[in-house]
Every structure is written in structure tokens, then in C-alpha cells.
Automatic annotation (TrEMBL):
Family note: Belongs to the mandelate racemase/muconate lactonizing enzyme family.
Domain called Mandelate racemase/muconate lactonizing enzyme C-terminal: residue spans: 152-246
Entry keyword Kinase: no
GO MF terms, alphabetically ordered: metal ion binding
SMART domains named among the record's database cross-references: MR_MLE
Listed name of the protein: Mandelate racemase
Keywords: Metal-binding
InterPro entries the record matches: DgoD-like, Enolase-like_C_sf, Enolase-like_N, Enolase_C-like, Mandelate_racemase_C, Mandelate_racemase_N_dom
Protein's UniProt keywords contain Translocase: no
Top-level division of the source organism's lineage: Bacteria
Matching PANTHER family: D-GALACTONATE DEHYDRATASE-RELATED, ENOLASE SUPERFAMILY MEMBER DDB_G0284701
Length: 385
């Protein structure tokens, strides 16, 4: 079997279409991610991607924010030396080795694991979703994320995305409470009843009372999900008992233990699952299988990944029956190959050679071996720093 021969990291910054902000982002710009490139003893190349952010963490300091540079250092100095010579197809062993080298740091481990899955799939001639147990869906309904912006701009963006086929919109909230309601009201008036509207407060509301008040006003315009308006489990549980809409955890749900705890506390109807936060595909699948057993649903979220991380999230979505909610998966595409102008577009270019297939508001899960994408190494060089 293929063994890991080299591990290289690349810090890559893509040009963005617009600023993308949320309540806790504090001006942290999107678009700088870390890529991991693994070469094996038999000449196979596997790619991983991760999206660490300084202002991204969990409730009560349970999880830390991080940076691309810190994550790179961790991989280069602590993880990579222990991975050399390891087989790429034994993911359980890979995690045990990484977990014994460094505690926590899911975003670093996710990138290394992703590259191993990509290489293992290529070595075996099967897509990653086959390695994860097999696909239950080929297409994933895309939700377009509207960052925090002025009401008019937010409504204009939502209408443009729907014109390009999007059937679900997520509105980032909790910086201006009047806008939180006004944008939902405006989009509902413009788009009618058929478009799914949901909100994501990113822990931004100061207290339960404010979150309940704003959520109840938004409910009049038919929102489907209220995502992480507050940080704490008890806050979410109290809010959930006082509103009608389903409550989703994101920042407070990283591991399967978190999902179990939140479920036990009666704090959630849904949670947001993705590869980086969970610490890799295998751990994300564990949470997704647990959700299925508990009767919970999840979406596949993320942090506006480039094409590599986006492909990994699509393979994750493919194998989980519980991942049945519209998912914020970008329509990443190399310059000149994009099929939309606004819908799912956060960057003006990408480091993969082809656009993801998008039709009827859905992204198609790649079916080629590994992650099913090809990385343009000239682009990686061009955008590296
Ligand atoms: Mg979120």
C-alpha cells in the first residue's frame, strides 16, 4: 500500500468576490487557507485543505480559534514527522498517531486526514465516499450564505442567488437587530413562500431575551432554522423552549460528544457538521451516524472552502442519511469557468481545474477516485505566500 513519503503545506489566498462577515468574525477576512500535499511511495499525490480562523471557537473556551500560520507550524513540526512512512489507507491508525502527537487541533488533523483519504482513494481507484461507506445521495441542495451587509445589499444578493437557481438562503445576523428582521422580511416579500430562509447569529446575541425577541419576529416571515444565536447550551435550550423554529448548533457542536451533550440538554433540533471542525472525515462521519441513530438532522456547513475542502464536504454529505438539510457549499470554480455570478460564489478563482457541477440548485458529488478533483499546481504557486 501507498506509504507517505513527503508532506508539504501551502498557505494560499484567493481573491474574494466580496467581504464575507458574520457576528463573531471581527473583520477577519475570508480567503486564506492551508493546503496539505502528500506524496506517497508509489507516486500518488493527495490533497487536503483547512480553514483555521482566529475568531472561531466554541462555548466557554472549549475550542480555540487558530490561524493558518499556527496550523502550518503544527503540521510541519509535529504531525508531518510522525506521519512519514505511514500507510495512507489506515485512517484509524492515522488518527491514533496524530492524537498521540498533539492534543486537539482538529483543523490541522482534518487537512492531513483529507490528503490521506484523497491519496488512498486514488490508490484504490475509488471515490472517497466509497471509502466512507457508500453514497446515499449524488446531489446536495446548496444554501447560499449572505454575510452581514446592509439590508438593500443583502436582499439584492439573495434575489440574485435565487435567480441563479438557489432554493435556500442563510442570512448572517446579530450585529444589527433591526436588519436581522428587515432582511428576512424583505427577502420573503421579494421571493415568495417557496425559498427556504434561515438565519445564523454566530453566538452574537447578548442574552436569551434578545435572541427570543428577534427570532419570534423573524418567525413571522417563515424562517426554517435558527442557528447558534447564543453560545451556551442552557441559553440554546431556553431559546428552543420559547420559539417555534428549529434550533441548530454550529460553534458549540464540534465532536460527537458535543452533539450527544446538546441533544441530551434539549438544546438542539439540528447541528452543522463539516470536515474541518470535526477533525476529519472519519470523525465527522461518526457524528453523522450518531445523529441518524438519535433522529437528528444536520447540514454540511463549512468555512467557504476552496475546491479541495469543498469536495471533502460533498463526499461527507453523500454518505450521511442525516445530512438532509440544505448546505452552505460554495460553487467554487477556476476563473472563467464559473456557471454563476452570485450563487455560491465567494471567490473569483480556485485552485482546482474544474467547476463543481451545479444544476437545479444542487451541487453534484464528485465520482472520480479520491476526492475527485484535480488541483492546479500553477494556481497553488500563484496564490501561495
Ligand atoms: Mg454557522
Amino acid at each position: 500500500m501507498s506509504k507517505i513519503e513527503t508532506i508539504n503545506t501551502h498557505k494560499v489566498t484567493l481573491p474574494t468576490r466580496r467581504k464575507h462577515e458574520w457576528a463573531s468574525s471581527v473583520g477577519d477576512p475570508i480567503g486564506t487557507h492551508l493546503l496539505v500535499e502528500i506524496r506517497t511511495s508509489d507516486g500518488i499525490v493527495g490533497w487536503g485543505e483547512t480553514t483555521p480562523m482566529a475568531t472561531w471557537g466554541g462555548v466557554g473556551g472549549r475550542y480555540d480559534g487558530s490561524t493558518v500560520d499556527a496550523t502550518r507550524n503544527l503540521i510541519d513540526d509535529y504531525l508531518a514527522p510522525r506521519m512519514l512512512g505511514e500507510p495512507v489507507d489506515n485512517i484509524v491508525r492515522l488518527h491514533r498517531t496524530m492524537d498521540s502527537a498533539v492534543k486537539g487541533n482538529t483543523y490541522a488533523k482534518a487537512a492531513v486526514e483529507m490528503a490521506c483519504y484523497d491519496a488512498a482513494g486514488k490508490a484504490l481507484g475509488v471515490p472517497v465516499h466509497t471509502l466512507l461507506g457508500g453514497a446515499v445521495r449524488q446531489n446536495v441542495r446548496a444554501c447560499h450564505s449572505i454575510g452581514i451587509m446592509a439590508q438593500d445589499a443583502a436582499i439584492e444578493e439573495g434575489v440574485a442567488a435565487v435567480r441563479e437557481g438557489i432554493t435556500s438562503l442563510k442570512i448572517k445576523t446579530a450585529r444589527n437587530y433591526a436588519d436581522d428582521v428587515g432582511i428576512v422580511r424583505g427577502l420573503r416579500a421579494e421571493l415568495g413562500e417557496d425559498v427556504d430562509l434561515r438565519v445564523d447569529g454566530n453566538e452574537g446575541y447578548p442574552d436569551v431575551a434578545t435572541a427570543v425577541r428577534v427570532t419570534r419576529e423573524q418567525e413571522e416571515f417563515g424562517i426554517s432554522i435558527c442557528e447558534q444565536p447564543l453560545a451556551s447550551d442552557t441559553g440554546l435550550a431556553e431559546l428552543r423552549s420559547r420559539v417555534n423554529v428549529g434550533v441548530m448548533a454550529d460553534e458549540s457542536a464540534w465532536s460527537v460528544s458535543d452533539v450527544a451533550r446538546l441533544n441530551h440538554a434539549g438544546a438542539i433540533d439540528y447541528f452543522s457538521l463539516y470536515v474541518t471542525k470535526a477533525g476529519g472525515l472519519m470523525k465527522a462521519v461518526t457524528s453523522g451516524r450518531f445523529a441518524e441513530a438519535m433522529g437528528l438532522s444536520c447540514d454540511i456547513g463549512g468555512s467557504v472552502e476552496f475546491g479541495i475542502g469543498n469536495a471533502a464536504n460533498l463526499h461527507l454529505a453523500a454518505v450521511l442519511p442525516a445530512a438532509n438539510l440544505p448546505s452552505v457549499l460554495p460553487l467554487t470554480a477556476p476563473e472563467g469557468a464559473a456557471t454563476t455570478k452570485v450563487a455560491g460564489r465567494y471567490y473569483m478563482d480556485d485552485i482546482v481545474t474544474q467547476a463543481f457541477r451545479y444544476a437545479d440548485g444542487c451541487l453534484t458529488v464528485p465520482s472520480e477516485p479520491g476526492l475527485g478533483i484535480e488541483v492546479d499546481t500553477d494556481k497553488v504557486r500563484k496564490y501561495s505566500s
